[in-house]
Amino acid sequence: MGWGIRSFFKSLVILNREISPTVGMLYPRESETREVRSLDGLWNFVKSDPTNPTQGVRDKWFLDDLSRVQDTIPMPVPASYNDITTQNDLRDHVGTVWYDRKFFVPRSWANKQRVWLRFGSVHYEAFVYVNGEMAVRHEMGHLPFEAEITNLVKYGEENRITVMCDNALIQTTVPQGKITEVSRDDGVAIVQTYTFDFFNYAGIHRSVHLYTTPLTYIEEMEITTDLAKDNNVGFVYYKVKANGTAANEAVNNLYVRVQLRNKDGAIVANETSNSDLKGVLEVQKVLPWWPYLMHPDPGYLYQLEIFLHGENNELLDVYRQKVGIRTLSWNNTSFMINGRPVYFRGFGRHEDSDIRGKGLDLALMTRDFNLLKWIGANAYRTSHYPYSEESMQFADENGIMIIDECPSVDTENFKQELLDKHKSSMEQLIHRDRNHPSVVMWSIANEPRTNQLNAGSYFQYVANHTRELDPSRPVTAAIAVSSNDDKAAKFLDVISFNRYNGWYSNPGRLDMITKRVIDEATNWHKKHNKPVIMSEYGADTVEGLHLLPAYVWSEEYQTELFSRHFKAFDTLRKQPWFIGEFVWNFADFKTAQTVTRVGGNKKGVFTRNRQPKAVAHLLRKRYFALGREVDQCNFPEDLFTYIADVGPSRNAKHDDADL
């Protein structure tokens, strides 16, 4: 009995342990000293027996071509594997799958350079073998990982890469899930369950690259920026880390030559560092990075060029990185960029599409950003996991602000192992995205169970860890627990809350929305004296369903529900501490099969194939109206549809009150 009590209380104690830092992981880019090759395409694919997921490891499938040990099918990379075939046992598969493909490494790569293998993401856990040797293992979907494979590949010959991917989610993964055995007609089924409301797509979701670096190479760079003299002078602070033979043997002989080019290619600043490989560039008549609609030229980016030199001024490595020069600041009642208050108007989103699932799709990504700009949004949250690096680069270019969220969703059962992985997910995310000007806030969780025991200390550790890694951006989390029961919000810089008045709360009651939104937002601010964002609101809507009077699931109801929220937001906007409104969701998306989801979650303003519902046109008018009021932007010419030329009657008198 005494042992049981001690074990129980020991399980309640969580410690703030150190997390191993990410190393390297620069986005693969060609330069004078680097080559990049894509391994995207059709790979060979095998689904393991769900009741025997480790068979491939025990039988060492990685030692030979998969086609020699199992029947294979072609599988596109990048893509989720779930919706590619017509088989429901693959769509709903739980456990491991295997991929392999062949590739050549040119003989020229054997000459005084390193070879790297990099994955944009594999969900959820990956084991990677090159020519039968373990190259790297990585746990955490949606984030990149890499390994040096210089000594694993054969030069001028054919090579084989094998990947085992495991999609299983348990109580100590991020995100969490549960696996159970359930009897079925012909035996036992392995069933994956989870509480989050999106489909657990799996596979090699983002691009796979081979790339080279010199023996001594630029391993990492950290960029921060500042503005002065009424935003007329900019500063770019750089910190470079080198690795390799010369870096280890002759540290004092290394230096970097740094130059900054504007969009026209002209050099506007340059500097040569000392051996510490860090410094600052000063830019006169700087063009700051501004969000979309806050400036006629949003998303202005410079190109930073870093040249690593060694002994006798030998050029060792070259890497280029786009840089946006801007400042962020916040207090108890506002959030500012370049000294100007920001009012966020945007979306929660998903990386989700038919057939590809969560696989990187550049055509879809481009369409999404066109729709974001068409509708007048200036921001979105990467709900509920990190999005592709390509989408982050697109946000930089287009001036779309990002609330960057880690994969923690519906977090509960706050234990030590989960805390360590949660902190690791934030560390990997910040390491990957810290140089993006579009990233203006870190979100450490979505709808965590912050009323539970241990939630307070757990999120205090995660929030403080995030600030230690990057003090230049505020920390938030999207909270669904009431302000009276929550234990985490006091550790945040900005409070975001999710609430579905008129849908999950009082469905069908459009008269129970406006006051409730105002009251809840006000309560959050009164309790914590911090800026507040409504990070989710919305209603499921079946495309083409029209019912009058408005009725749940109809396009009329979604439109009316949005309008009632708009009234609340306009009341709240009179208080400076209310700083943003985010619709849930940008587009319809797939979920697990339930009787409350007809083909998935239908709360999108756009359909899953990215066509507007009726509410999109209403939301567009609102977002541009807010842009006109807050940021003095111009209306698009097609914002208002011509109706009629109705002038005043000849004898009538009119004044400004009629407008």
From TrEMBL:
Domain (Glycoside hydrolase family 2 catalytic) spans 332-624
Q: Does the keyword Hydrolase apply?
A: yes
Q: Under the GO molecular function aspect, what terms does this record hold?
A: beta-glucuronidase activity; carbohydrate binding
UniProt entry tagged with the keyword Signal: yes
Matches recorded under Pfam families = Glyco_hydro_2, Glyco_hydro_2_C, Glyco_hydro_2_N
How its function is modulated: the record gives:
Inhibited by L-aspartic acid.
Q: Which PROSITE patterns match?
A: GLYCOSYL_HYDROL_F2_1, GLYCOSYL_HYDROL_F2_2
Q: Could you say which EC number(s) this protein's record lists?
A: 3.2.1.31
Which cellular compartments is it found in? Lysosome
Domain Glycosyl hydrolases family 2 sugar binding: start-end pairs: 36-214
| Ranges of residues in domain Glycoside hydrolase family 2 immunoglobulin-like beta-sandwich | 216-326
Swiss-Prot/TrEMBL keywords: Glycoprotein, Glycosidase, Hydrolase, Lysosome, Signal
Q: Which domain of life is it from?
A: Eukaryota
Please name the GO terms of the biological process aspect recorded for this protein, alphabetically.
carbohydrate metabolic process; glucuronoside catabolic process
Task: Describe the reaction catalysed, as an equation.
Answer: a beta-D-glucuronoside + H2O = D-glucuronate + an alcohol
* GO CC terms in record: extracellular space; lysosome
Complex and partners = Homotetramer.
Per the entry, what this protein does is: Plays an important role in the degradation of dermatan and keratan sulfates.
Instruction: Report the family membership.
Output: Belongs to the glycosyl hydrolase 2 family.
- Quote the protein name from its UniProt record: Beta-glucuronidase
Point out the gene that encodes the protein. Answer: 101887338
